[in-house]
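User: As part of a screening pipeline, I want to sanity-check one entry by hand. Below is the sequence and the SMILES for coenzyme A. Please return the complex as structure tokens so I can compare it with the automated output.
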Amino acid sequence: MRTELFQYKDGTKDLEILSGKAFQSSADSDVTEWFSFKEMKTAIETQRGICVKAVSGEGNLLGFVYSQQESPINGKEGLEKWVIIIMAVDPNMTGQGVGTLLLKEIEKQAIDKGALKMFVYTNKGDDKVVSFYQKNGYSDAGWVKDYQYGSNNSAVFLLKYLS
Ligand SMILES: CC(C)(COP(=O)(O)OP(=O)(O)OC[C@H]1O[C@@H](n2cnc3c(N)ncnc32)[C@H](O)[C@@H]1OP(=O)(O)O)[C@@H](O)C(=O)NCCC(=O)NCCS
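Assistant: Here is the complex for your manual check:
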């Protein structure tokens, strides 16, 4: 297993299919409702976003993660603060370290772009995902009521200081 950087010129079909599978049984099953691969490509092209893929020795996609600057309009705050927007691992490959490998690599890449803090948020009550991030050094940063689209969709935030 190895990681590769997704380039903005690459196609996203395989990422879209994999995220469809990864989120199938979750509350966020329609990924297009909350994530845009087109916007991801624009952010990567303009150096505001990074996507890392995990691939098998045979080159098959096992998972990916996408992170971006919070918002460059906020000056230093936007540049130093990054956020993980999506992380998806092939459901046949979960629990085997793919997600951990992806996190390590996206953190390294973000540090190279000046990130000092990495945030991630997920649905409040999503204990499996929270525990995954906690195992990787992320700590509780509070929760925000109804932060996400729809109703009754509060978000729990996790934070890791990068160095
Ligand atoms: C959450 C996710 C990225 C973790 O990736 P992973 O490759 O399974 O993670 P790792 O193997 O590196 O780490 C496993 C740990 O993650 C946690 N975990 C979270 N979801 C899990 C799942 N579906 N299967 C197995 N472990 C999971 C467990 O705490 C596990 O720890 P354990 O091995 O001590 O039980 C992956 O399960 C996934 O894609 N889930 C669906 C999409 C999603 O919810 N993404 C995150 C929000 S953007």
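Points to compare against the pipeline: The longest strand covers residues 61-69. The mean pLDDT is 95.
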